[in-house]
Amino acid sequence: xxKDISQAVISRxxxxxxxxxxxxxxxxxxxxxxxLSVLMKVTASQIRQDLNNFxxxxxxxxxxxxDYLYSEISKILGLEHQYNFIIIGxxxxxxxxxxxxxxxxxxxxxxxxxxxxxxxxxxxxxxxKVMPMEELPEFVRSGNIDIAxxxxxxxxxxxxxxxxxxxxxxxxxxxxxxxxxxPEYVQVENVxxxxxxxxxxxxxxxYNENHKE
Amino acid sequence: xxKDISQAVISRxxxxxxxxxxxxxxxxxxxxxxxLSVLMKVTASQIRQDLNNFxxxxxxxxxxxxDYLYSEISKILGLEHQYNFIIIGxxxxxxxxxxxxxxxxxxxxxxxxxxxxxxxxxxxxxxxKVMPMEELPEFVRSGNIDIAxxxxxxxxxxxxxxxxxxxxxxxxxxxxxxxxxxPEYVQVENVxxxxxxxxxxxxxxxYNENHKE
DNA sequence: AAAATATTGTCAATGATTTGGCAATATATG
DNA sequence: CATATATTGCCAAATCATTGACAATATTTT
Lengths: 213, 213
Known about the structure:
Two copies of one chain form a homodimer. In chain A, β8, α8 (about 155-165) and β9 (about 170-175) form a beta-alpha-beta unit. Chain A has a seven-stranded mixed β-sheet with strand order 6-7-5-4-8-9-10, sandwiched between helices. A three-stranded antiparallel β-sheet of chain A has the order 1-3-2. In chain A, α1 runs antiparallel to α4 and α2 crosses α3 (about 45-50). The first copy, chain A, is built from nine helices and ten strands. Chain A has helices at about 5-25, 35-40, 45-50, 65-75, 90-100, 100-105, 135-140, 155-165, 195-210; strands spanning about 30, 60, 65, 85-90, 110-115, 125, 130, 145-150, 170-175, 185-190. With about 210 residues, the first copy, chain A, is of the alpha/beta class. The N and C termini of chain A lie far apart (about 55 Å). Chains A and B meet through α1, α5 and α9 of A and α1, α5 and α9 of B. Chain A binds a DNA duplex (30 and 30 nucleotides) through α3 and β2.
């Protein structure tokens, strides 16, 4: 159905949702693409074009109903589902993600954490216990876990990803600094923090290059 | 000089660097764009085109020298500099970033952490003390801080960004879930984790949509 | 209820990015 | 050292993404 929507469009949807959420909070009932374009600093044409990939949510002469558009974009993004997730790697990053309450509000439910460090095993994050890695395969196989979050160093990540896939995981949110090689039916979203920092570094240097006399 | 290189190209450079680093570690001396394209699962044409934005680093009939190309991309990304950075928000995410040793290897030196929570003030991350927010303006103004990392909730982020800018910061690595409005001379790199999670959610739903009978 | 105004959805034009192809030129081979 | 082979740098073509324009159609005003 909505097979070939480009990732460029998908990447913009969460930002639309964020702005619409703020408008909802301010009890704004309707908004036109041109008003929204000013707020978001994009072209009105892009907003209309993006939304049109999924069907017409607006009305001529009126604009878009904020609540309706918000809920439609939520649906498109799959946020009406609940997702059970586990975190592998209970270091600071894992704990940060596990403790982030807004994820739960969106329907992402933390079901378990895993680590190989004996000092961490048995500790808790928001009532969820950190388990030893040995229990991971069984946990993934029997529980209905939708997403595995990988917050371990790159050295172990490839092997852990294999274990996850072998036990039936269908989605990985990967913070390890390595590209995972998984079957096509497994969705992977990478967050490569050091890549992001390097881009910042580039932009700093490049700005400085272009602005010295 | 290298003024108008597209961000699409810049975004790929850290990944090239990562693969070249792995080749260096394996003592591979030279590589052709087509060999690298197989490893990285991109087209050889894209690799050559990307590198050509910055000048010719290869040699016909030979390919690219791994060490040389690695160091040239490092230079392009500004990684031969040292950057002093501070972290605002000493929660788990701030601690995770502050404790990440690889950043230091790349020349990113943690100079201070700040938080408004009295329980955290005085605690340490890798020998760096968490200071109260009151000390932030003076610290930014007098120290030579190149990058501020924002790991605080969105509510406070806009104000803190203003304080940072007013005191002379030139670059912000923003993890707060809000768009910062800063002067054009301030470089901002956003890491919106929940946007990333929503993209994963979309890809899960969309895969399921397209594969049910 | 007619006229004026607002605003979408969509098409066409433009702009940007990616890919394919190949001349030029290096290395490797016999 | 001449010939075969490899591979870049670059150009042109193809693809993809963004923007601008406007008919169609709703809302708002008088």
